[in-house]
Amino acid sequence: MLMQTHEARLSALREELKRRGLDGFVVPISDEHMSEYVGEYAQRLAWLTGFGGSAGSAVVMQDRAAMFTDGRYTVQVREQVDGNLFDYEDVPATSPAKWIAEHAEKGARIGYDSWLHGVEWAEAAEKLFAKKGIELVAVDGNPIDAVWADRPQPSLAPAVPHDDAYAGRSSSDKRSEVADWLKSEGYDATVVTALDSVAWLLNMRGADISNTPVALSYVLAHADGTAELFIAPDKVTPELTQHLGNAVHVRDRADFQPALAKLKGKTVAVDPNHAVAGIFHALDAGGAKVVRDADPAVLPKAIKTPAEQQGHRDAQARDGAAVSRFLRWISIEAPKGNVDELTAVAKLREFREATGELKDGSFDTISAAAGHAALPHYKVDEDSNIPIPPSSIFLCDSGGQYLDGTTDITRTVWVGPGEPTAEMVDRNTRVLKGHIELALATFPNRTSGGALDVLARMHLWQAGVDYGHGTGHGVGSYLSVHEGPQRISKPGGAFPGTETELREGMILSNEPGYYKPGEYGIRIENLILVKDAGIEGAEGKYLGFETLTFVPLDRTLVNKDLLTDREIAWWNDYHAEVRAIVAPQLDGDDLAWLEEQCRPL
Fold first, then answer.
1. Answer CATH for 160-301 from 3.30.70.270, 3.40.350.10, 3.40.50.300, 3.50.50.60
2. Which of 172, 272, 360, 556 could form a disulfide with 401 if both were Cys (CB 3.0 to 4.6 A apart)?
3. How many Å apart are CA 66 and CA 85, to the nearest integer?
4. Pairwise CA distance, residues 79 & 76, whole Å
5. Domain limits of the chain?
6. Mean pLDDT confidence for 495-524
7. DSSP label at 463?
């Protein structure tokens, strides 16, 4: 019998834990690859609790349970998770491990799935628990899977070759680079676990996870340039086999753990930021010498080839026309009061699909009206969906996946009739000034993203306000919309990557914002490419940014008097480029709207 209520599911899990001799269990949002987005088969937290966010976890004990989310989901978790079943706990004020240490009794046995948690989390939790006399137990088979009767199976969508013309480099060339690194470090092999790293290394894509074109698989790359791909046999087509060639041995995904156990005496590099604890355990048990080192695909994947850079420009141009059509539609329909957040999501998807090139969204569209726009990571669903009120701000953060590039854009617009408040205009203009400051930045080679973050915030700080998220994240090439290692964020913050040096060819977002809880939110986001700054007479190498995203910005929310001549020149130059790139793709009323939006400020 299927359990329809979360109370019944929680009760069934507790019975299963009791049967296994466990006093508690930790439930993350994760898969065997520590992916940001996970397939339906791995949505264990959502099944158990009803929580639909992309970051969070739960702890279930026999007498109590708790949900752990950060400030992005304070409202959402209370809407979706029954407070009679779960306590609400805020991260980073506490954490699952800290909470267990406080609430579990001495001698308690707390289970965790070592194939869903990072090794450093497991080691830190084990150390903390030991002080309290609590035992952390790696379970044999996830107990949720034992009680989730109608759990979906992992996707069997075929893995497909990604043409070298899009990638700009062959898989053989990439594997040779990894092999050279292995030899230089004295390693025999490395385990590549992150799905986008596997996809990049083999020039392979898939359809196993919404919004990210990857195939569920692992790679064991060897110092001789060969590799083993562990993937479900049903996903392998003759085209993929031919594409991979003789140097890549295709093996059943089920053989992965046993293969790790057979690497006795081998020196194997594993990235603790991307590999689950179960991989380390299997290698240790098999007698391999495990070295913790960075995934060798991460940095070269972030530095886009000339082909990938041009692909991004092409994808952005196509996407810009679709988003421009959408913004015109919003400007006409939303003031009538008959457009809600979900309708806007569907309409934007329709415009992107009309390009004939869209493969998927790059993430779930943030379609946020009124107070919802003050939640930076708001995700609309049937329960939270509201009409877009006339005389309000509407924020839309969205992106598309195309064979030649991945897009991510946020536009904030005023929905008439009437005029925005002076405060709204002031805040939007300050966000715009920060966006321009970053877009125009020049900086010495080897500068970190963290060193640039203040440029985007300085004008907001002058008014005594700020925003709580990072300013920029890396973006993949027909891969993950959130890609490391680079990012632009406050140094020393909660986000890894702020110390990574920016390099030519990296793509990042430029997305400062401002959020007034319960009232409105503002964000302006374009993607930017790190390039040579071209400063004549520069003493050493200097870098700057090329803007890749071209869609009009809402002039209704701009106070020209707060802009410098330099900023007005940027605005006018930017919109001249928007017109040049997007106008040839539009006609009729869409073209007339674009021309009006792009006239000089």
1. 3.40.350.10
2. 360
3. 8
4. 5
5. 6-147, 160-301, 303-597
6. 93
7. T
